[in-house]
Specification:
Radius of gyration: 24 Å
Largest sheet: 3 strands, mixed
Shape: globular
Number of strands: 11
Strand content: 5-15%
Strand order of the largest sheet: 6-8-9
Length: about 350
């Protein structure tokens, strides 16, 4: 595989959509063949990747004469793919068809991952019972927690640029594909529904009688991420004005708990100023119970930022470079840490002309 290809340039690379075996193998084989054909090409950006032409009629190694064309037509049932039988096709054209197939799967409304909210509610008991029957010693709380984890993974998957519209020059646009737009609405409603069930479930449990608990009994300890309390208020005071007033209470809550929000919070500044804060916090051990990978995913799930006046979602790849690496150093940081204290970086005043 070409080492310059990034995972967020690939659609459903880890089968996060839980497609059945044939459908997943179709997606895998198409993209594997693309990567094999471009093995020796120099690729510096996703635009380079999407603009490459591949031979969709070429037999895929290890198959009985299957090609990208045949997989689309015979297995994904997109009969109008390459109706002109052109040999060379741009990658962005292939990806557009993969998104079309996903949208069709969504509108069929019979695949568990893509169920609309009303259908999901109707099938909830059946889905829960199937889970409980196939997982020993689990309860409804375990099922809901698993479902929420799946939802969060799906939300992360959809931050990949390949789920946005691509113009004829291979440039990724800000506008999401029909699939991404509609499944995002569905996931938002499903997450709210599941969180409501989880809250109801927690309220239905009677309080534990401490006298009945054996204090010497070994218990599994769940380590939750936390931010050291002594830095919470100084941090909040520095960054709160970069968020709308109506979002500031929610900002403070998730900084204290590292829970997820129902709706992403908008940071009114360049994204690297926010990720720079999180990078400094975790590297100075102000955040505990979180690996950098977890912090990156939490950032992507819960925040947006402004770029040239447009609202942007964080992407895993760029958040990772900022928080885990040193490639994207912040030229205009908001905080600095001295003697284990968080300090606001004072911005230089512009010189007045005499």
């Amino acid at each position: 595989m070409n080492n310059s290809i990034k995972e967020d340039w690939l659609i459903n690379s880890r089968n996060i959509f839980e497609l059945d075996k044939i459908d997943h193998l179709s997606f895998f084989s198409i993209q594997r063949e693309i990567l094999d054909q471009i093995e020796d090409q120099n690729i510096d950006s996703i635009t380079d990747f999407l603009n490459i032409e591949v031979d969709t009629t070429k037999a895929i190694w290890g198959t009985q004469g299957l090609s990208i064309d045949k997989i689309f037509i015979e297995y994904l049932k997109l009969e109008n793919f390459n109706v002109l039988h052109v040999r060379l096709t741009h990658v962005h054209f292939i990806y557009s068809y993969l998104n079309v197939w996903l949208f069709r799967k969504y509108t069929d409304n019979n695949h568990k991952t893509f169920l609309t909210n009303e259908i999901y509610k109707q099938q909830y008991e059946s889905l829960k019972n199937n889970y409980l029957n196939s997982h020993i010693d689990t309860d409804e709380n375990d099922f809901i927690t698993r479902e929420l984890k799946i939802c969060n993974s799906l939300v992360l998957e959809l931050t990949k640029p390949v789920y946005n519209n691509i113009d004829i020059l291979g440039n990724v646009e800000d506008e999401p594909t029909a699939f991404k737009k509609h499944i995002s609405f569905t996931l938002d409603k499903r997450i709210k529904y599941l969180k409501g069930l989880l809250l109801t479930l927690s309220l239905s449990f009677p309080p534990v009688n401490k006298d009945s608990v054996d204090e010497n009994e070994n218990k599994d300890v769940v380590i939750r991420p936390t931010c050291k309390p002594e830095i919470l208020q100084p941090l909040f005071e520095i960054i709160k004005d970069f968020f709308n007033i109506e979002q500031q209470n929610e900002l403070k809550r998730i900084l204290e708990t590292f829970d997820n929000t129902d709706k992403k919070l908008l940071f009114k500044g360049n994204g690297n100023r926010l990720t720079d804060i999180f990078k400094k916090l975790i590297e100075h051990d102000f955040i505990t119970g979180f690996q950098k990978k977890d912090l990156i995913e939490w950032t992507v799930l819960n925040f947006q930022f402004l770029h040239n006046g447009s609202i942007k979602d964080f992407k895993i790849s760029t958040a990772e470079k900022s928080i885990s690496g040193n490639e994207y150093s912040c030229k205009n940081p908001l905080i600095e840490i001295k003697n284990q204290q968080i300090l606001r970086v004072e911005q230089p005043k512009s010189k007045k002309s005499k």
